[in-house]
Amino acid sequence: MGTPLQRWILLICGCLAFASLAAAVWPSHARSAAPLATSGLELSRLDADPVPLEVLGGALDHRFAVVPGGVIRETGPRAGWWRLVSTHAVPAQHQPYIVLGTPESARIEAWLPGASMPVVAKTGGVDIPSGFSSRASVVPLRDGLRAGHAVYLRVGTLAPVAMAVGIEPLAQLHHRDLTYVAWRAASLVGFVLLMMLALGFWLGIGERGYAYLLLTLAAQLAFFATQGGEIRLLPGLSGLLGEDPRSPILTGLLASGATLAFLAHGLRLRDRNPMLWRIVAGCLGVLLLLVVATVAGVTRGVLSFGHAATLAATAALLVACVRGTIRRERAAGFLLMAWLPVLALLVAGRVAELGLWVAPAWLGYALPAALVLAGTVTMIGLTDALQKVRRDRDRVSRLATFDTLTGALSRPAMQERLSAAVTEAHRNGTPLSVVFFDVDRFKRVNDDHGHRVGDNFLKFIALRTRNRLRTYDLMGRWGGDEMVVMLPDTRLNEALGVAENLRSAVNCRPLSIDDRLFEASLSLGVAELAAGESVEHLIERADSALYASKTAGRDRVTGHDPRITGSHPRFVATSGQT
After folding, report:
1. What are the backbone dihedrals phi and psi of residue 167, each rounded to the nearest 5 degrees, phi first?
2. How many domains does the chain have?
3. What is the pLDDT of residue 77?
4. Which of 432, 440, 473, 492 satisfies CB 3.0 to 4.6 Å to 528 for a cystine?
5. In terms of domains, do 377 and 441 share one?
6. Which of 328, 335, 339, 329 is nearest to 382 (CA)?
7. 551 and 447 both lie in a single domain
8. Predicted local confidence at residue 131, as pLDDT
């Protein structure tokens, strides 16, 4: 079942999902009690769609069948008539309103007692009464409602719906609207901030995952702003998305498709789970076809097919997340932790929109809030993935920069630093010297005692010599047992003294390897950078000085002075054994 971390992630995600679903299915009357009791409302349905005059005249009252539970359920697309009767009087001084938790796909017409024209109640950002949010459809009962008097409702919908019906006083209605608006405003601001962060990371880092997250958040923001009516606050988009009843359907399909595609990309579903990828790809294809159908004006059955495709793809992605978390894939763990509560709320909302149960009022703002949280966790996951890539890159870079045996710089890294130092020395006119040394009779150590002893030999010598260098000196392994030391801002005479310290650091006492003592010594060559000299020529002169130390008997330091030319010897300041 993976590491303890993966098991904890699965446990936490399972608890979050269970809590989300438990809160969603918990009866709404157990969470809040209305001052005006709604248990006295009798709801009945007429399985027909006659002309309004026949219904309002009371001639068809005997055909209305009582529906328990106070929930309007319509399967569409034919409109249905509902009769709402209060068994007790609802006084007008409370300023009561009929409240219907209406999805954006429904259209409701209400005939109050004695009225000849209906009151049209509609959500989805269209026809919202002034002073109210899009949380629910409301019908004012300005004269109250007498006991036994009926309110007739005609409900038409593009897809199956389930709507709770109740009566609330204006004060409670405004209180719940303010709570709804506050949560939605916070969620929408969260969307905008996350989009700005994703845009900044994408432009600054160039990681495509942030671009995909940005598109997903933009699609979700468009859907929730269209569904809730906030899109009407933007003059440029008000006429385009704020008034067309197809807008919530279209943006909802696009948001679902963008979210599913982003999760599939984050899980690398195409490569790691081809079978699940085919399921998700098929569902995305269905959503794309439904988008085209909605644009063309075909809306019948679109929501039902869209919800079914979304639920199928969600199940496939959930399986992929769980599998990936068990296989210790960090990306899958982050996505599961971030999106499982969202998927739970999404499933709850889709099931409610299919008319299978009544969604609680808070689901309208819980889902966008959960999406903001999911976006935040996903951004953390993307940053974690980038940090892992950076750590791996730094590790590879370190392996390429440093010699793993001695800890000294590798030859390419040393050449790069020497080249930069030589260029700077020529430009600023500062001195620069190098020390070139190798281990005396090192081949004999390998031949007589094996390469393991030889490797330890080099480790100890590198450690002893590195401890004698200044903080700004650099040492690199040139090849085999050959080492190069770069001494910035150092003249030849001072460099000879540093080289002598390196020599004495090695031959001062034997090396202890595998409980045996080995004598060790170095032969060193020193050269100072001449005017206009290249790195290659500088190393060549230091190598020549090293060869002179070898020829003179080893365990000594020899310096190469380019100012001594012609018939004079080129090597100076020889020190060491005689």
Report:
1. -120, 130
2. 3
3. 67
4. 492
5. no
6. 335
7. yes
8. 67
Name the amino acid, one letter, at 311.
Answer: L
Domain check: are 245 and 345 in the same one? yes
Mean of the per-residue pLDDT values of the chain: 80
Q: What is the rounded CA–CA span in Å between residue 433 and residue 541?
A: 11
Q: Which residues contact 468 (CB under 8 A, 6 or more apart)?
A: 498, 501, 502, 505
- In this structure, the answer to whether residues 97 and 157 fall within a common structural domain is yes
* CATH number of the domain residue 167 falls in: 2.60.40.2380
- Report the amino acid identity of residue 44: S
Q: How far is CA 224 from CA 248, 326, 352, in A?
A: 8, 34, 17
| CB 402, CB 519: distance < 8 Å | no
Distance (Å, rounded) from C-alpha 522 to C-alpha 531?
29
Q: Do 363 and 443 belong to one domain?
A: no
Query: Do residue 225 and residue 361 come from a single domain?
Result: yes
Better pLDDT: 544 or 74: 544
Host domain of residue 528: 411-576
Burial of 431 (0-12, 13-18, 19+ CB in 10 A): middle
DSSP letter for each residue of 129-196: PTT--SSSEEEE-TT-B-TT-EEEEEEEESS-EEEEEEEEEHHHHHHHHHHHHHHHHHHHHHHHHHHH
Residue ranges of alpha helices (H) inside 246-362 are: 247-266, 269-272, 274-295, 302-326, 330-353
Q: For a pLDDT cut of 90, what percent of the chain falls above it?
A: 20
CA nearest to 145, candidates 116, 168, 164, 127: 168
Which pair of structure tokens corresponds to residue 13? 């995600």
Q: pTM, whole model, 2 decimals?
A: 0.58
Specify the range with the lowest mean pLDDT, choosing from 4-18, 19-33, 66-80, 406-420: 19-33
For residues 365 and 357, what is the distance between their CA atoms, to the nearest angstrom? 18
483: three-class secondary structure by DSSP:
strand
The domain that holds 536 is classified in CATH as 3.30.70.270
Alpha-carbon 346 to chain mean position: 19
Is pLDDT of 4 > 80? Answer: no
pLDDT tens figures, 513-531: 888 889 999 999 999 999 9
Tell me 556's DSSP state.
Answer: E
Q: Are 557 and 436 in contact (CB under 8 A)?
A: no
- pLDDT higher than threshold 50 for residue 146: yes
Q: Max alpha carbon distance in the chain (Å)?
A: 132
pLDDT tens-digit series, residues 306-351? 878 888 998 898 888 888 888 887 778 777 777 778 777 777 776 6
Query: What's the confidence (pLDDT) of residue 235?
Result: 64
Can you give 100-148 as a three-state secondary structure string? ECCCCCEEEEEECCCCCCCEEEECCCCCCCCCCCCCCEEEECCCCECCC
Are residues 537 and 561 located together in one domain of the fold? Answer: yes
Q: In this structure, what DSSP letter does residue 234 have?
A: S
Whether 308 maps to a domain, the answer reads yes
Cβ atoms of 121 and 141 closer than 8 Å? no
Does residue 179 lie in a domain region? Answer: no
Residue 105 has pLDDT above 50, yes or no: yes
Q: Are residues 452 and 303 in the same domain?
A: no
R_g (Cα) of the chain, nearest Å:
40
Burial bucket for residue 108 (CB in 10 Å: 0-12, 13-18, 19+)? buried
